[in-house]
Structure formats: C-alpha cells, structure tokens
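Appendix B, Record 12. Input sequence as logged:
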Amino acid sequence: MANIEFFKQQAKKLLKDYQSRVFNETEGLYEYTPHYFLDIDEIIIDFNINEDGPFTLMNAQHIIALMAGFSKWNELIKSSEHLAKSM
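Logged structural output:
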C-alpha cells in the first residue's frame, strides 16, 4: 500500500470515531465509542478540536498530518508521493 493510502485510511477512521460521539446531558460532555483511535479523547484535547462545531474529513486529514509531524495535509501528501516514487 502506498504511504498516502495509509494516511487517507487513518483520516477516514478518525472521522468515523469522531462521529461516534453522543452528548451526555447528565455530565454535560460528549462521549465516544471509538473503534480505531481508542485515545480519541486525548486527540480532541491535544489538537484543540471544537466538539460543538462541524468536523469533516478535511479536519480529520489535518489532524492526521499534524500527528505525522507535518503542518498540513498537502505537505504530508507531497512527502508521501516523493517517498513512493523513490522506492
């Protein structure tokens, strides 16, 4: 699998886990039932994700890029494509 495909899959998995959120009215916070990112609460805190706003695939891609050490998704893609071509 090409590197970029791995990162695309990770972004989709992050989005799915985020979409598992349910608002707990008693506690006044969102709860998640993640399947892929079991530390999703930490990810939300570490990357300052606004749980009340929309979270799209583009947002998930940005977070994955940051987790991989890049400042944006396009940098990750270009780096991944360069690696794939040199192999």
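The mean pLDDT is 90.
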